[in-house]
């Protein structure tokens, strides 16, 4: 498995809204009012807003990775903590399909399917069965909580983590959907992080947690297991010697 960390360096204020002229200005000028109203405006895009790759560098990078994987005959998993992010990414896929079909850089549209907390048990099984089939979709969109545990998706070889929380175990579980027993091909994991943001700080904290876990828990476990192995070996040797002695004693 290869983990690729993509640190995105960008000026969020300059890039926001380039794909929808006027909307970006509307978002920025919303801060002229009360602070609470400004934040509410950020979470509620305009009613006539349409998803554009220029509005989200992460999503643009993700769709480029998926396109490259598709052209190589591989499939991808796209994980996010937010179902709104998944919905937004669906719009990005549709828009880039249109653009790439027009310029001829894509032989066919990118096919996708989705699995999140709103999926019923039957829908979940049908989605996974369809994706793992020979004619399955090119990318499976999953929410981290609903799609991060209990499923086998070894048909995918590219895992994209669009965002992540504080718990490193959630990321390991998500990666483990593709990188697991039964996987016969290399798996590439892409972690998308925006530089000098709250997310970047969270990522640094997560790396520190992983290091601490490896240093204290895993190494201590290895030492304990090694010590247990030595004790077991000594017991076997003592048992062997006692058997030799007992065989030499006359009945």
From TrEMBL:
GO terms for cellular component: nucleus. Its main location: nucleus. GO terms for molecular function: ATP binding; ATP hydrolysis activity; DNA binding; helicase activity. Residues 65-228 form the Helicase C-terminal domain. It comes from the Eukaryota. It is found in: Nucleus. SMART domains: HELICc. The keyword Nucleotide-binding applies. Keywords: ATP-binding, DNA-binding, Helicase, Hydrolase, Nucleotide-binding, Nucleus. PROSITE patterns: HELICASE_CTER (PS51194). Pfam families: Helicase_C. InterPro entries: ARIP4-like, Helicase_C-like, P-loop_NTPase, SNF2/RAD54-like_C. CDD domains: SF2_C_SNF. PANTHER family: HELICASE ARIP4, RAD54-LIKE. Belongs to the SNF2/RAD54 helicase family. This is SWI/SNF-related matrix-associated actin-dependent regulator of chromatin subfamily-related. It comes from Trypanosoma cruzi.
């Amino acid at each position: 498995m290869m983990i690729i960390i993509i640190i995105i360096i960008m000026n969020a204020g300059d890039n926001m809204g380039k794909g929808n002229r006027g909307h970006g200005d509307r978002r920025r000028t919303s801060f002229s009012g009360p602070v609470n109203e400004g934040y509410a405006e950020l979470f509620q895009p305009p009613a006539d807003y349409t998803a554009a790759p220029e509005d989200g560098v992460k999503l643009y990078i993700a769709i480029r990775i998926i396109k490259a994987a598709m052209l190589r005959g591989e499939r991808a998993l796209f994980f996010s903590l937010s179902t709104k992010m998944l919905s937004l990414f669906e719009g990005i896929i549709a828009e880039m399909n249109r653009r790439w079909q027009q310029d001829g850089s894509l032989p066919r549209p990118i096919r996708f399917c989705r699995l999140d907390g709103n999926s019923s048990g039957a829908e979940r099984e049908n989605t996974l069965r369809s994706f793992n089939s020979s004619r399955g979709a090119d990318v499976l969109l999953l929410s981290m909580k609903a799609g991060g545990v209990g499923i086998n998706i070894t048909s995918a070889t590219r895992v994209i983590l669009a965002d992540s929380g504080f718990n490193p175990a959630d990321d390991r579980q998500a990666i483990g959907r593709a990188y697991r027993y039964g996987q016969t091909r290399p798996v590439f994991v892409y972690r998308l992080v925006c530089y000098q943001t709250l997310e970047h700080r969270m990522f640094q904290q997560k790396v520190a947690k992983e290091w601490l876990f490896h240093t204290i828990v895993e190494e201590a476990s290895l030492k304990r297991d090694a010590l247990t192995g030595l004790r077991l070996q000594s017991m076997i040797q003592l048992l062997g010697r006692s058997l030799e002695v007992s065989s030499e004693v006359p009945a």
